[in-house]
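Section 5: illustrative case.
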């Protein structure tokens, strides 16, 4: 006799006021008061990462109940995508409206882990808004896509502090989603979904009909 499935219980969670109250609603830029909009979000068991319209990344540590702030040097521009990764070190990748991509290697209090905040930049390949980011499970590979269809592969050497980036694929429409596993990159655009085999550098389309 088949077992009876337990009933699904819906539970309503209250807003995270402790998080929202740590993010300013306005900032002062010279004589102007600028409204802060929340533009990107990612979470894992350790952190909640929130991108903003002023180029500031707010990173809330769930274990220490602490909020930290990270920003890009120079021009303040809207953050469009954030992607967390917990591997040997805690990493967060950030993309902006102009195509800038940065990786922050976070400080950890655990023995043998990273003790100094480091930043890696994906330099000069993207020229338009970042719409998707995907990590490899070990944090050595980062894929970034933009709204012009470009996909960039960045190889990170955290020990040497190096980041080497190259354009690996260019689609005719905006990238909307990326996911990577076992040398295969899943790519979704506004027109189609495909599998990109990173070793062979070959493409296999999922389905036959273009999206409308």
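Designed sequence:
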């Amino acid at each position: 006799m088949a077992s009876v499935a337990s009933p699904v219980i819906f539970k309503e969670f209250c807003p995270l006021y402790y998080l929202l109250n740590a993010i300013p609603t306005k900032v002062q830029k010279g004589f102007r008061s600028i409204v802060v909009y929340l533009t990107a979000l990612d979470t894992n068991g350790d952190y909640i990462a929130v991108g903003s319209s002023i180029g500031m990344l707010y990173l809330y540590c769930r274990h220490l109940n602490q909020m930290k702030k990270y920003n890009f040097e120079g021009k303040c521009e809207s953050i469009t995508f954030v992607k967390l990764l917990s591997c040997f070190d805690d990493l967060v990748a950030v993309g902006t409206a102009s195509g800038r991509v940065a990786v922050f290697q976070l400080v950890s209090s655990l023995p043998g882990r990273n003790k100094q905040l480091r930043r890696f930049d994906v330099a000069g390949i993207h020229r338009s808004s970042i719409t998707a980011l995907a990590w490899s499970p070990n944090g050595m590979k980062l894929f970034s896509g933009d709204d012009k269809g470009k996909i960039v592969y960045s190889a990170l050497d955290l020990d040497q502090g190096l980041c080497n980036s190259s354009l690996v694929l260019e689609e005719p429409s905006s990238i909307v989603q990326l996911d990577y596993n076992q040398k295969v990159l899943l790519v979704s655009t506004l027109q189609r979904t495909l599998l990109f085999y990173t070793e062979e550098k070959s493409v296999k389309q999922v389905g036959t009909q273009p999206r409308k």
